[in-house]
Every structure is written in C-alpha cells, then in structure tokens.
Design goal:
Blueprint: H1 5-18, H2 39-43, H3 51-59, H4 61-67, H5 71-80, H6 84-90
Signal peptide: 1-18
GO molecular function: lipid binding
Protein name: Bifunctional inhibitor/plant lipid transfer protein/seed storage helical domain-containing protein
C-alpha cells in the first residue's frame, strides 16, 4: 500500500500531539550582590532606598522571596532587619513575608 500525502500529514500531526511538552525554562540564578545598595536602608529605616536598591530588589524579588520562604529565615529577617518593610514599600514591591 502506497502512503498518501494526507496519511503523512495525519501521522505527523499525531506525533506532534503525542510529544511531551518542552521543559520549563531554567530559573534565573540568584545574584544577591544586586541587593548590596539596599544594605544601608535595611539597617537604618530612616534612610530612603536608592533607585539602584529598588532595581536590584525588583530583579531579585523571586529569588529573595524563595530564600525567605524558609520560616527561620523569614523570622530572622522580619525581626532583626528593621528596614525591610520600608524598602519594599518605597520600592513599590509587594512584600513576600
């Protein structure tokens, strides 16, 4: 039996439909050095975060939120780093704690 072009198209469509989905894209690496400009306002809530701090916080928000999803780390950050809430507020970033 000779395969018709329609049969080849049907076979190709079935093969594509049955193929597993592509793997998710790799997660970006955490670069906590980008949060270095945030250290002064983190330690002294009277200081206003710089634009560099806000850019770093925004770019690393997913990584930062992943780190503080660990309960002991979250408790430490919220209890011992006085400026954390103010930085999130000033940078207009939704806090993840």
């Amino acid at each position: 039996m000779k395969a018709s072009p329609v049969m080849w198209v049907v076979c190709f469509a079935v093969a594509v439909a049955a193929a597993p989905p592509p793997p998710p894209p790799p997660q970006p690496c955490c670069d906590l050095q980008q949060l270095a400009p945030c250290l002064p306002p983190l330690m002294d809530p009277r200081l206003i975060p710089t634009p560099e701090c806000c850019r770093g916080l925004i770019s690393q928000q997913g990584c930062f939120c992943k780190i503080i999803s660990n309960p002991p780390v979250d408790q430490y950050i919220t209890n011992y780093i006085p400026g954390i809430r103010g930085i999130f507020l000033c940078c207009r970033v939704i806090p993840c704690f």
